[in-house]
Amino acid sequence: MKYKILIILLVVAISGCKNEGKNNSEIGTEHNHTQSEPKSENKKSLSPHTSEMAMIGDAHIHIDYSSPGVRNRIIFGGLLAYDQVWQAGAHMATWLETNKDLEIDGKVLKAGKYGFFVIPNKEEWTVIFNRNWKQHGKDNYAENDDVLRFKVTPKISEDIKEHLEYKLKKTTENSGTISMSWEKVTIEFPFKVK
């Protein structure tokens, strides 16, 4: 009788181990599946989110943008049509924030946060600061929300700048330049801290 009970317990234990092994392999499969999902999330973005910041005089200036790549495309006059508003980055509109008033093109940009837009053209670009800084692309862009507009002449290079890049450069104690470069084009304009 002891042997029969022992054999039954042994059979139950072995079949329990086999079922547990199946469950573990099923769990392992599910676990591997969930592990592979973050890999796709961690895949390098084609337009990485980045920013540029600088202290110029008493002004802390911050530019926030997503940086698209050229990827063998014609950008200006191709992917981006001339004479149309562009959010000057990818995804969400690019924005600039300053804690001090800035003088740009003889006009005052009050301390605050602004959407940064441009209208590209072969001959000259229109630079726009718009009070609606939080919008997807240019979906909610409205010209009557513009607080400052001015023209700049683009500089054309033979070299290609693969990813869109903004630069803040200090030129004197209370002044600097803001530049945007992508593909073969750079625009740049000076500002003074008020």
Automatic annotation (TrEMBL):
It comes from the Bacteria. It holds the Pfam family DUF2911. Residues 22-49 are annotated as: Disordered. Residues 22-44 have a biased composition (Basic and acidic residues). InterPro entries: DUF2911. This is DUF2911 family protein.
